[in-house]
Amino acid sequence: MALDVMAKTCTFVGICLENIGIMRYEEFISMIFRMDYTPPLSDEYTAVIDTDFAEVPVRLYLPRRKSETLRRAVIYMHGGAFCFGSCKQTALDFLNRRTANKLDAVVVGVDYRLAPQHHFPAQFEDGITAVKFFLQDKILSKYGVDPSRVCISGDSSGGALAAAVTQQMKNDPEIKNKIKIQALLYPGLQMIDTYLPSHRENEHGIVLTRDITIKLVSLYFTKDEALPQAMRKNQHMPLESRHLFKFVNWSTLLPEKFRKDHVYTEPVLGRSTYSFPALMDNRASPLLANDSQLQNLPLTYILTCQYDILRDDGLMYVSRLRNVGVQVVHEHIEDGIHGALSYMTAPLYLHVGLRIKDMYINWLDKNL
């Protein structure tokens, strides 16, 4: 029954989204996410506080139970293509409550500013501001957190923010307390090549199609319609970006089973008359970081889904991190779809979403 409901919903969304704007898309998402749902009473041991860290809204999940030792902490960046979503969203609120409860950990959900009202780098700036604030000795002490056991994580675009913040903080001399591990759930990590094998195979995919992805990602940078038009043709990058394509060359970075019979075609550069330097910024696309920027990153967990247009971003990041000696744990969900975590609560209770939730929390429990 749940899968039937989901299939009908996705079909309806797929038919309608071509002719609706960002606000109506957000309405569809809020309907699907069922923000009126109340998490089970089994999570009553977690107190929830809405506050802010240096003027960045956050939702704190604090275990009510007394602890004789310092607690672990997880900083979570929500997904939503930088355009919608919140840690108050039903499913992610449930995920963070359950994480705090199962791990006896403090969880910080970061509600960064959203596009199209706020373009890049506002989202990144909010993410790194909140993380830096939390990692202060006085704040960690206030919430009883062990400075050596902090994780940063996120799903989809939140995974991109988590990866970007982790990269930027690695060598920041102002940060005494470092991130121990990072966990990236079906992350979107680059925007310079919009014709990867996963883009081709999932062009008309469940929930997230290629056209919807391009429409939303472009709003991260601008409201100019010229950008999504060029991105659809994979002709949106300038000539001076040529050196970056070795970092996202799927013909060398993807395992053979994902390359299949696809033929690599180098994107056409310099066709657009406009210029968006942010497209070449690794704070927006963490896959564009060079090897030296990736070295010595913390233990990393990356989860990818087969039926996901963003699948290859995560797979390429696994390859790049391993190539520079970073320890990576990769789990691939053969029956997974993008955004599966968002459908694990009422009315769908999608099994694969619940399975991903358990895999994520169990990995954190063993490694944080």
UniProtKB/TrEMBL annotation:
KW Hydrolase (keyword) present: yes
Claim: Hydrolase is one of the keywords in the record: yes
Key words, A-Z: Disulfide bond, Hydrolase
Entry superkingdom: Eukaryota
Pfam families reported in the protein's UniProt record: Abhydrolase_3
Molecular function GO terms recorded: carboxylic ester hydrolase activity
Annotated Gene Ontology cellular component terms: membrane
Classification via InterPro entries: AB_hydrolase_3 (IPR013094), AB_hydrolase_fold (IPR029058), Arylacetamide_deacetylase (IPR017157), GDXG_lipolytic_enzyme (IPR050300), Lipase_GDXG_put_SER_AS (IPR033140)
Domain Alpha/beta hydrolase fold-3: 74-224, 278-340
Active site: 156, 308, 338
Family: Belongs to the 'GDXG' lipolytic enzyme family.
Protein name: Arylacetamide deacetylase like 2
Name of the encoding gene: AADACL2
